[in-house]
Amino acid sequence: MTRVVLLMKTLVGWCVLCLVSRGVRAQFPRACSTVEAIESKRCCPTPNADAENACGVHSGRGICDAVRTDMRPWGGTYTLRNVDDRERWPTKFFTQTCKCFGECKLGWTGPNCNLRKAPVIRKNIMSLSVEERQIFLEALQRSKHTIHPQYVIATEHWLGLIDRQTNQTHFSNISVYDLFVWQHYYSVRDTLLGPGRPFKAIDFSHKGPAFITWHRYHLLSLERDLQKLIGDKNFAIPYWNFATGGSECDVCVDDLLGGADPSNPSLISPRSQFRDWGIVCDSLDEYNRLVTLCNGTREGPLRRSPKKNFTLPTMGDVRNCLQLQDFDRPPYFTNSTFSFRNTLEGFDKADIELDFVVMGLHNLVHDFLSGTNALSHSAANDPIFVVLHTFTDAIFEEWLRRFPKNDSFPEEMAPIGHNRYYNMVPFFPPVTNDELYIPSVDLGYSYQIDLADAGQSPSVFIVAGLCLSLLILILLLFLYARQKSRREYEPLVSAKYAAVKYTEDV
Ligand SMILES: *[C@@H]1O[C@H](CO)[C@@H](O)[C@H](O)[C@H]1NC(C)=O
Ligand SMILES: *[C@@H]1O[C@H](CO)[C@@H](O)[C@H](O)[C@H]1NC(C)=O
Ligand SMILES: *[C@@H]1O[C@H](CO)[C@@H](O)[C@H](O)[C@H]1NC(C)=O
Ligand SMILES: *[C@@H]1O[C@H](CO)[C@@H](O)[C@H](O)[C@H]1NC(C)=O
Ligand SMILES: *[C@@H]1O[C@H](CO)[C@@H](O)[C@H](O)[C@H]1NC(C)=O
Ligand SMILES: *[C@@H]1O[C@H](CO)[C@@H](O)[C@H](O)[C@H]1NC(C)=O
Description:
alpha+beta, di-copper center containing domain from catechol oxidase, three-stranded antiparallel sheet, three-stranded mixed sheet, disordered N terminus, disordered C terminus, binds 2-acetamido-2-deoxy-beta-D-glucopyranose
């Protein structure tokens, strides 16, 4: 009986979630991990075991509807067709899922979804109070050790999802934080063509316009999970302003995200809670060899070793990036020039010609942290990933404020997964890049940050230059006047050195 109640609660919870937030969750709901659901490609849970009431249609909660996918052509390096189960996501798995009536968009609230939700405020991790910092660290710690209440991960690719011998499906429970890591891994993993034959030129969340919208949603989903976990709907994840131009990882200290272990600097200090964080989804080559997926088992400790003799990005880099008016430009890839996205992602620098060895902003910081952070399939294991990407998102937010009407997010010919209306892999229920390409307050959060100055620098420099010229002029006049007066009064020490030059021509 309690089991049934629990199941109902989960299902109702899911639909309410869908109603309120359009389902800010990913991979598949546990309720849809059954053989029936996979075989029918239908993920429309029934809140009270009444087959007629899929998605809670009777109570006006939702409706079971066909999944819409982007049919526009994609460009880029993935030239294969119909061999990757993430193509036209999520239709290889489900073609029908819950769509909700009267859904509240992200950022709205109230029974009729007509009340603006006060945005949660993302602050600088360095300016959190001791208490706020403790809440953040504890939320992370709980997320690492709590099984995700609604979602499970697929541990085999689509064709292997049902074990015909046991008539069971290959799904696994995973912790809230590890789901966050798994999502990132799944979006960058290779196409599995056969044992030891991975196709690597595919990435649903980097090297294209979706880099920004994908990570935005990824952070939002973690933020919501943490809010639920600690029961505080005002909780917000902080950001790390990495644009210090310095050479130190200032958040790598034990009362923030962990210092280095003195006896093995590539590990986290034993005094940090992150010392014991086992990483998941790290053995990409192993999964490729076995033609399988990351199953969420822990694979060893977190590794991090900030590089010595390294310069982090500067506010000047941020400022230059924010001058770029085009969100992205053809070919919408790592070789796009004058692209805000490509510059922020870090394959291009705003002020120089394209150079493939160049790494800027986001990429540079990952490179700096090295260890687990340097591998994109594994990077999200390090909690620094959260605060690094939050700052990246804050820069995008400032760009959106400056160029609100710019429509340069491509609708087609971006790499697979990166077209504007593509459903982001592996989020479920489906959500497009376009839905995240809006101001953050419309999604229910904002930043306590001032990047407004970044980019005003030319005019700042002009004003400063004018002031300086004026000062010099005044100084010259003063010196000239003094010189004259000195001539009149006969100085005690003869100061020919400067006077000659300024007065000669006069
Ligand atoms: C497998 O299980 C599903 C539902 O659990 C059932 O409908 C189906 O008949 C089963 N198939 C076999 C081969 O046992
Ligand atoms: C997964 O977690 C759910 C809820 O915590 C539990 O009911 C279920 O038995 C777990 N499944 C496995 C395979 O551990
Ligand atoms: C999960 O993956 C790990 C690492 O690839 C592997 O050693 C382990 O056998 C897998 N577990 C299951 C239950 O498949
Ligand atoms: C630091 O980098 C500079 C320039 O790349 C190099 O000349 C110098 O030798 C490096 N110093 C150390 C201690 O590695
Ligand atoms: C960009 O890179 C892709 C893939 O390497 C290549 O096919 C394309 O020609 C390049 N485009 C430009 C403009 O360099
Ligand atoms: C976006 O900015 C670029 C560069 O100024 C401009 O060419 C383009 O027309 C703008 N697009 C829109 C929709 O305003």
